[in-house]
Amino acid sequence: MAQADRPTRTGSGSPSSGTAPAAPRNWFLRLGAPPVAATALTAAVALCMSLVAFGNITDFGTNQQFVQHVLSMDTTFKDPDLMWRAVESPAVQNTAYVAVIAWETLTASVLLTATWFWITGLRRDVYDRARAASTVGLVMMLVLFGMGFLAIGGEWFAMWQSSDWNGLDAAARNVALAAFTLLVVHLPGICRAGTAQT
To answer: Considering the entire predicted model, what is its pTM?
Structure first.
């Protein structure tokens, strides 16, 4: 067989008709790409929020007591200068608790949608919708746990003074998780990947 008749081979060892094929994708290395990390983190946060909402709906009474004790401030130091802030109306307490559950459920729904956008975006390297939906859901989570639990519950209703009904550690963990995920979602590498093939 003449030299001219022999097929040339690319670096990957496959025959070529003269035009170099695109480099094969290394799927293992792609698992370490920023969009994959953003997908995994968004999915983890979505699962967490879904379980929180599901638990509060199916076990309504447990955290209902938590909200009632926090708002009534009955396990704080009962400083007269602070006790005027207490909310003792069961109707207002229950309304606040239902509002929290509704916010958690909506947040979980947004984050689940964002997870789906990330998964479908991985196939096309387009992440605009995923990044936008994740941002909305994560900010909702930060508002709930940062503003609702840390600021309003922890400081206004002095939850930090209670040894029995203190949810500051759990709230801080959720704020840290949401904030970290938000940072990963907005990594510059994801922005470049999202516009590379549009």
So the answer is: 0.82
**Alpha helices (H) in the chain, listed in sequence order:** 27-30, 34-58, 60-72, 90-124, 128-142, 168-185, 188-196
Name 8's bridge partners: 16
Task: Give 86-98 as a DSSP string.
Answer: ----HHHHHHHHH
| Residue 189 and residue 33 in contact, taking contact as beta carbons nearer than 8 Å | yes
Positive or negative torsion for Cα 110, 111, 112, 116: positive
The Cα-based distances of 160 to 146, 156, 172 in angstroms read: 14, 10, 12
Give the pair of three-digit tokens for residue 17: 């008709």
One pLDDT digit (tens) per residue for the chain, 198 residues: 445 454 444 444 444 445 544 444 566 567 778 999 999 999 999 999 999 999 999 999 999 999 999 999 999 999 999 999 999 999 999 999 999 999 999 999 999 999 999 999 998 889 999 999 999 999 999 999 999 999 999 999 999 999 999 999 999 999 999 999 999 999 987 865 444 443
Report the distance separating Cα 127 and Cα 150, nearest Å.
Answer: 32
Q: Give the whole-angstrom CA distance, residue 54 versus residue 137.
A: 17
